[in-house]
Amino acid sequence: MTESQGYVDLHLHLLPNVDDGPRSMEDAVDMARVLVDDGVAAATVTPHFNEWNPDLLPNVDALTEQIDSLRQSLDSEQVPLQLLTGAEHFLTPELLHKLKLGEAPTLAGGPYILVELPFGDKPIYADELLHQLGLSEVMPVLAHPERYRWVQQDPDSIRPLRERGVLLQLTAASMLGHYGPGIRKTAERLLLHGDYHLVGSDRHRARQSRSLSELEAAVAPLIGSDATDVLFRQNPRRVLRGEPLLPVLEEPIQPPKKTLLSFLGRS
Ligand SMILES: [Fe+2]
Question: For residue 200, how far is its CA from the centre of ligand 1 (angstroms)?
Answer without folding.
Answer: 9
